[in-house]
Description:
Layout: E1 2-6, H1 17-29, E2 34-40, E3 52-57, H2 69-80, E4 84-88, H3 93-103, E5 106-110, H4 115-121, H5 127-140, E6 143-146, H6 149-159, E7 166-168, H7 181-195, E8 203-207, H8 213-233, E9 238-242, H9 248-253, E10 258-262, H10 267-273, E11 276-279, H11 289-296, E12 300-304, E13 320-323, H12 328-338, H13 347-353, H14 355-369
Helix pairs in contact: 1-14, 2-3, 3-5, 4-5, 7-10, 8-12
Amino acid sequence: MNIVSLIPYPFLPPKSGGQNLIFRFYRYFSKYHEVTCVGTKQNDPALAEGYTLLNCLSDSRIRYVNLLYFFRLRKIIREKKASHLIIEHPYFGWLGVLLKKYCGVKLIVHSHNIEAYRWKSLGKWWWSILWKYEKYTHRQADYNFFITDADQQLAIREFGLKPERCTIITYGTEISAPPRPEDLRDARRSLEQQYSVTPDVPLLLINGAFRYGPNRESLENLVFHINPLLQKMAFPYLILVCGMDIPENLIRTGFPNIIFAGYAADISTYLKGCQLFLNPVLQGAGIKTKLVEALGFNLNAVSTASGAIGIDPKLCNGKLWICQDNDWDAFAAGIHQQAKLQADIPQAFYDNFYWKNVAKKAAEFIERQIE
Length: 371
């Protein structure tokens, strides 16, 4: 089948979890169907793997209400003889509905989370307006992809969707099996040399784009709530903070047992060389992509309940410790416990989260609807 996808913001190169989702989903999904992605001008077409990328959308914020895009997308759909249109997020819902009506394509909404509730958690007054628009968009779609079971059940209940028209297409990992022990040892030695740490000290990792409010808050939770509790436990550890836009006031202050490593050109060295991933997230919505990646690299992990949405601990062989939101004593206790755990992530995790399997599920769902 020929499928056109409408992507509302830059994603090549990917710099955030949502951009990585789009980048990797279409890299694998295009192995099953012919895909043309329509994106913004800031994208780098050279990074599109396996599909055609047309940078037709403006970078201006008014692109979301530009009626001329109907004619441009209609032309692309007809030229490609597309049978399906996927829209990433609900923001171009009005355009998707028009193209469904006048081009005869099946409309698929690929939800990364329930956007209205995400904005509500961030304190935006207009979230209820978005909720009504999001509901309308999903109800007009022929099929709906959700990233977690919680999102899917909420949408079925509150949007009035038919369950048979919904499926879970989660965020994935490109790791199909735990890294080799020798690769883990090499990465660990590299970090030991870089940060002058001895082999007996567990390395704890937190990473993200810290300009984003929920990520910045998670870092502050670690620095001001969790690390003081760890200090009282008197066991050796070193926390490495990787990512862009680490607040300057934190860097200048400095904190015991914390190194602000900043942006890592190759984050895989940290994912292989550290022993424990920390996810003290309280805000936002949907699955936390960094946690999926960390578990895929076979790290032990400690997370708040909000940070672990969409990941079943039963798939993790004890490697995911979940505590209630704001229970920092339990979070610190989890770090102490997980730092000693010797276990491997099981095959069941990769069966569910390996990107090839995720994309295949999406392709087969579409195929079944036309049989």
